[in-house]
Each structure stands twice: as structure tokens, then as C-alpha cells.
Design goal:
Chain lengths: 401, 401
């Protein structure tokens, strides 16, 4: 086995996972369950929304021209023909010189072209005094003004927010076409690992990566399938990988922080399928593996938690996005570095930073084996392969966790 | 009934919902189900993490002083005593002049105080040539360096991210103390409303607010309980409100966009319990109601979707945060307005804006009855009550949806 990895640029690793990602599988869920799901199709308006011209204020429907010049001293005087009931279809037409009370959301009667807010009116017997002029179209929403029939309203790849659910409801989409959640098998390897509920012996640590990777998979719209801790024994790893690749749409194989483990992971993936990439020009995270077993992409994550987080975001994120079709808006913040960040040319460095709330980003240089910097950091700053470092005061884009 | 509302400042409404919010109820969930849940207690390290000093590189454990002055031309020559197995407790002590191979994650043997990376060594028979000096402590994580026994690692009120799950795993927290999800009853009122699956008649619209509010409740860690559409009839509303208040921890009563409906909602809440606030100095969203029925806080949301969104964020958000204990990091972005935003003194205006990706925030002045601006906007900009407006080019903080 080789001592040094042949690393490829990050872009190549991302292109590889996109190439081997299984296609999006569409399913339908009731609107009540669509929160956070990724739309599998464009959603169009099936009809004009709203389907009728409606008032947005409590007031009187009028012919706007009748109110020209109206003021406190010289109100327009209009004949009150009654009121429109909410949800009632019939609305008697208004003729010039007439008006009709319409509550917010009510139908504008034929002939009327504006609403005068009730605050600017005074009912006197069968007449209504209007103290302010209104322009045609004022205080109403025209039929189709919100969404015109046929218009694409929400695009495929959008993750449903509360607002999107409201829009889907308005459009009558009671059953929502979404991407099925990809099942992602998660395997942790390492003889030093014990389950979370166990008390570690003198040379043991609890398995943090299974939880880290599971949480990430959920966050990105997948469903984690946990295969637990597998000892660094070839047969055990082969068995776990075969099961995960058969039962899941993709596999995250975590661990292999030492060269021996790494090599064994790569060898087991190669035997069961193929290794496309072993080594990515990224720090932390260099010993990343990208491979495939049957149709299932397999990503070999480095063992250190901080490395795992970076590789999850940079490599596994694009895989999950390809499998769900999510066009994710990357959340970033702009800040100024409070300290120099040295780096090496030829690799992308991802440095954890803590935002100080005053525009500053403080680099956290903790070892990638530590979890504490993950708690303290707000995200990471990328130092591109072409740079030797970033300087104090430099404006950087923080990729928020 | 009064024509004009007596509005209170936003701060007063927020203080009121915090005051009447039921206390956080703690429950325990398995770590596998803790993603996105809010921690109900501070989480401390029960023991030093890691519990032993471990290597972070593949290499040789050495006495650092033995490598002083080592170089390519003049390597240090150390006796190789063997290798440490992963997860194995015993590790023979190293004496000066000796070294021992330790894979990443392995125990540092007694006597050693640094790891020389394998890349800088050469094994020659029973000897190892070391081509670079190391400093004491290099390439290892000391016992307790990640988390010291007793230290608070994650604070109550934190919403569990994937990284937090990794940390909980490392700490051995297999059962996580979290805030129970508050059950929030959601009632939509309005005679013009039809269910999502129905085809609206000539004066009808589909109920969007139930979906909007349900999604918001889920997003903020609650569990929506949908009571559907209630007609604007006093008895029907009384019945629905009584059921929701009895069965849920809080109630969101949506609708009442017209004054008549609003007044009826307020009257029904007052009869069943008490109305604390009717009218908030906020636009959109002025006719907001804050009340209580039994121990359950009741928020009367305005009927227009955009108003509903603003009031959900500004008033219902703090209620849910109080009920879950979440100390939510508000997500904001800094941008420059691309257009003037006029406003009125004496009320907080929340203006929807679309970020253009180049540092600009374009105000969307659509009517609050429209859903389309909710789709197009990235969030809202607050124009505080003390300002008459914001100017083009002004730097603003965008409260992201």
C-alpha cells in the first residue's frame, strides 16, 4: 500500500459524487407532512389566485371616479346599496353614485373599481359620505394578481418552508410531489470505538461519528440507517458494507483515521465495487474516499470529527443534494478575520471560525480530532488552493454550519 | 365595538406572551431522535474526554527531547519497541532512546510526550530514523483536552445540530433531556375559506393560514394540532376555541382580517378567558390579539398571509421560544437597501425584501394579502417605530425567514 495518497482537487470529488448519485425518486406526501421536504416538480397555479377580485380593507366598494375631489369639507355622497357577505357569491352591481360595504376579503361587486376604507367614510341614513378620494384599483387584489393561472409558483428543488406550505395550500396542492428521502447507511469503523451508552475502557472512545453523520443526513433530507460500530477486521467490514449497499441508496463509511484502517476501507470498497477517488486536496479531510458498491455511492469519511464535518459538508452535501434534487441556498455570513490564517497552496483549507457578533470571525485552530471547536464555531472559512493564507482584517465568507 | 384599536408597542406584546407562556416541560428522547430538539438542561462532561492521551497522526511515540536537532542529514536513531494496537489498554512505557508505533487514535505509551509523523521517519531493522524534531505535546490530544470532567459543554436552550449530536455521543448521553414539543392548536376562521382539497366557489379562497401557521410551529419546535376551518359564527368559534385550549398548550387563531371577525375573535377569547392585548403597533399585523384561555396562551393572527408571517415571527416566535426554552440564534444578513422604504412613526414596519446576492436588499411592497411576495422574499427589514423610513443605500439587517 502507498504511504502518500494521490489527491484530487475538491471539484473533482464533487463532480464524481454528482456523477454517481442515484436519481431523485418522486413520492407524494400530504401537505401536512410536507414541511422540510424537497419539491420534486415545479408547482404551477391551476387557476387564477385569487379567483375573484377581493377587498383588502374593510370599506365601501365605489366607482373611483365618484370620489374625485372628495375631502373633509366636501365629501362625496353615495347611495348605500347594502353589504357583501363573506364567502357569498352574489354581489349586486354598483352603478355610478352608489356604494356597497365590503369586509376585508369580500368580493368587489361588478361596476366598482376601488375600496374606500371605512375610516374615511361616514354612514348617514341610506347615504355614505366619503371624505377621501381613491384611485382605481386601490385597496383591492385583482383576480389572478397573486398567482396567474399556469404560472410556475414554486420550483422543483425548493425545500418547503412554512411560507411555501401556505402557498401550496392556496394553490390547492393537498398532495405534494416531493423527493423521497434517500436512505443512507452509516458505518463506523474502529477497534477503539464503543457505543454511546458504554463506559469507555482505558484506550477507548465513544463513537461520535455515527451521530454526527446521522444528524447531517437528516438535516440534508435523508434518512440515516445505522449499522453501528464495525471492528477493523476485513470480514466484518465486508459484511457491513455489503448489507448497507444492498439496503440503502448510499453509504457513509466513517472511521479509518489511521493509514491501516483507511487502506482497509479502500480495499474493501474496491473489492465490493470500485474506488473512484482516494485522497482529496482538502484539509482537514485528505483521506476521503469516493467509491461505489453496486448502484450505491460510498463515501469514506476521515475519522476525526472535525474532518468528518468538513467532508460531510463539502463532499456528502453535494451527494445528498443530487439525490434529493435540492437546490440549497448556502447560508453564509460575511465577516473580517481577527487573525491570520496560514495555509498551504495546492489544497482547500477549511478553517473553523467563531463569529463574534460584531463582524469579526476568529479562527479556531484546534486539532481536527477535537469536538470542542465544533461546538464553539459558527462555520468554516475556505482558503482556496491557490492562496497561501488569509490575512487579519480580510473580508471572508463564512460557510455557516 | 370600537372602530380603532388601542395599539401597544411590539415589546409589550412580546413581554406579554413571555409572561403567560407555560413553562418548559422536560422529556427524554434517545440520541437517535434528538436532531432538532431543544436541550432542556446543560450537558456536562461526566469524565475527561478523551479519557487517555491519544495520537492524532500515524507515527512514532517518542520522548521529544530525543529528536532535538534531528534532520535529514543527521536523523535521530531510536530503538523500535513495537506498536500500540487500537483500542488496546496496555501500552509498554517508552524510555529515552526508544520509540513505538502508534496509529491515529491510539494510546500514547507512558514516558512518551510526542508523536513523530510516520512520513518523517524511516524504519531500519529494529531502529527508527527520525528526520525531524518534534516538540513536547506535538500530534497528540491530552486526556481531557477535548472536554474536561465537569465542564458544561452544551447549554440548555440549544437546538441540537448534527455536530451537537456528535458531542452528545462522545459524552455518553444516550438519552437526551429535551423540551417536550408544545402542542399548538391552530384554528382558521372565515366564511370565505374552503379546505385545500376543495375547489373554491366564486367568492371563496382556500385556507392558506392553517398550513402557514402549522409549518411555523413545526419549524419552531412545536407540534401543530389542526382544528380546521371554523365559520364566523360565535357558537362554532367558541366550541373550537374551548376544545383547542383544553387539548393544547397554546392556540393560534388565524383569520379575523375584517373588523367584524376580529371583534368576534376578541369577544370569544374574552368570554372564555381574557384578552390582554388587542392591537399591536406593527405593520403589517396591527389587529393582533394576545389573550389566554385557561393556562393556554391564545394569539389572534391577522388574516392576511404576509401579516400572519410577520406576527408569527415577531409575536408567536417568542411564545414558542419561551415554551421550548430555545435560545434561538436569529438568522440575519446585512445588506444595502436598493430603494427608499417609507414608513410611519409610532409603529414597527416589517418590509419584505429580496436579497439580490450582491449585497442589495430590494423592498417588495406587495399588499399583505398576497402570498407571492412571501415566495420572492428572503426575509424582512424592520423599520423601528422611531424612524420615518429608511433610505436607498442604507445598511440594514435582514431578518431572514
Amino acid at each position: 500500500m502507498k504511504l502518500f495518497l494521490e489527491v484530487v482537487p475538491v471539484e473533482e470529488a464533487v463532480a464524481a459524487v454528482r456523477r454517481i448519485a442515484p436519481p431523485v425518486v418522486e413520492e407524494t406526501v400530504p401537505l401536512e407532512e410536507a414541511y422540510g421536504r424537497v419539491l420534486a416538480r415545479d408547482i404551477s397555479a391551476g387557476e387564477d389566485i385569487p379567483g375573484f377580485t377581493r377587498s383588502v380593507k374593510d370599506g365601501y366598494a365605489v366607482v373611483a371616479a365618484d370620489t374625485t375631489g372628495a375631502g373633509e369639507a366636501m365629501p362625496a355622497m353615495l347611495e348605500n346599496t347594502g353589504r357583501v357577505a363573506m364567502g357569498a357569491a352574489e354581489a349586486r352591481a354598483i352603478a355610478p353614485g352608489q356604494c356597497c360595504y365590503v369586509p376585508t376579503g369580500g368580493v368587489i361587486p361588478p361596476g366598482a373599481d376601488a375600496i374606500v376604507m371605512v375610516e374615511y367614510t361616514e354612514a348617514v341614513g341610506d347615504e355614505v359620505l366619503v371624505h377621501r378620494p381613491v384611485a382605481p384599483g386601490e385597496n383591492l387584489i385583482a383576480r389572478g394578481e397573486d398567482f396567474a393561472a399556469g404560472a410556475v409558483v414554486l420550483e422543483a428543488g425548493r425545500r418547503c418552508s412554512p411560507r411555501d406550505l401556505g402557498v401550496l395550500a392556496a394553490l390547492g396542492v393537498a398532495e405534494v410531489p416531493v423527493a423521497a428521502r434517500p436512505r443512507v447507511g452509516i458505518i463506523s469503523t474502529g477497534n477503539e470505538l464503543v457505543p454511546v451508552a458504554a463506559t469507555p475502557g482505558p484506550a477507548q472512545v465513544r463513537d461520535a461519528n455515527t451521530s454526527l453523520a446521522s444528524g447531517f443526513v437528516i438535516e440534508r433530507g435523508g434518512e440515516p440507517v445505522r449499522y453501528g460500530i464495525v471492528r477493523d477486521e476485513r470480514a466484518a467490514l465486508e459484511e457491513a458494507l455489503a448489507a448497507a449497499a444492498a439496503e440503502c441508496d448510499a453509504v457513509l463509511l466513517s472511521g479509518g483515521s489511521s493509514k491501516d484502517e483507511r487502506d482497509m476501507c479502500a480495499a474493501v470498497i474496491a473489492d465490493a465495487g470500485e474506488v473512484l477517488i482516494h485522497g482529496v486536496a482538502i484539509a482537514p479531510g485528505k483521506p476521503t474516499i469516493v467509491g461505489r458498491v453496486g448502484p450505491a455511492p460510498v463515501i469514506g469519511l476521515p475519522g476525526h470529527p472535525a474532518s468528518t464535518c468538513v467532508v460531510l459538508i463539502v463532499v456528502a452535501g453535494p451527494l445528498l443534494a443530487a439525490m434529493t434534487g435540492e437546490r440549497r441556498a448556502v447560508r453564509t455570513a460575511t465577516a473580517r478575520l481577527t487573525q491570520n490564517v496560514p495555509s498551504e497552496r495546492g489544497r482547500d483549507d477549511y478553517v473553523r471560525v467563531a463569529l463574534d457578533g460584531e463582524g469579526g470571525a476568529a479562527p479556531l485552530f484546534g486539532k481536527s480530532g477535537l469536538l470542542n471547536t465544533l461546538v464553539a464555531s459558527s462555520g468554516v472559512v475556505r482558503v482556496p488552493a491557490s492562496r497561501e493564507g488569509l490575512e487579519t482584517g480580510e473580508e471572508v465568507e463564512v460557510l455557516l454550519w
